[in-house]
Sequence to fold (339 residues):
Amino acid sequence: MELVRAATLTGYFQVAADLRLDTLPLLRSAGLARAIVAEPDRMIPARAVIHLLEESAQAANCPSFAVRMAERRSIADLGMVSLLIAHQPTLREAFSVMQRYRNRLNSTLVLQVDERGGVAVVQEQWALDPPLISRQSDELALGVLAGLGAWLLGDLWQIAEVYSAHPAPPPVDGAAYARLFRAPIRFGSDFSGLVVDSSLLDAPNPRADPALAAHAKRMADAMMAETERSLEQEVEEAILLQLPEGRASLTATARALGLRSRTLQRRLESVGQTFAAMLEAVRCRQTTRHLANPRLNLTDVAGLVGYASLSAFTRWHTQAFGMAPRRSRKQQSAVGRLS
Fold:
């Protein structure tokens, strides 16, 4: 199920009120009720939330709508795992907790941390099938990550750059971005993410309390045992991490999960899945997402989904989608203009 916690909408009504927005028709259009904010741990459809945020930003003529929401967020809005996250000794371990308890935060958000040459790129990608591109949900996720880093590390937290796959907003919206991220923002990039010095991931969290962390873990494990990540989610996350580097194989994925290839195959078969089918599904979803970004040329898209050459990517795409990637991109663009 593609679900998120109702707490994802924390700050929504305050921002809407500031912008004098009538939320009732927008909520109805998304199939949501105002009462959901009274139950922050309730799981609600992710697509409904994404639709609501996008339509609200358009109705208010405010591209920074979700950024303004993120300004109002606190670590407590992460729910029952917030205490566990807050008392992790480092940001790296806080991120690990978020990955482990993904089902009770937002099951459709995949947190990725890529480190190279002393630099870390932190991203959260929506694992929706089919993909749903939305500026507001992307920037809300980035804003929450930025706020988490600031809360855990205080003045030590510093973002080197912010990358956004969306166009630059009008100057009037720029102040909200500046307040939240406090870093240069490269709009119109080929991905969305935060760039920080890798050393920050292991910087000590001055608020960490090992005893409280252990207590919070016992409570979280007791209350959330039934929502542990499924095998499919573990495999999907590993594929997402390996796909751009062309390493998304059964062997590499099994190794990343600490399993033997045959063991992973058997466990997938026991839940009616195969690795090949999961790889194909993730590759199709990511291809659709990347083709929607006009900043990426087809060679870039090919590399991001694991193909070393454009010709090989084109052959696969034609077989998977029934048309060449160039034509598929034109169709997506036409649908986007109509909507």
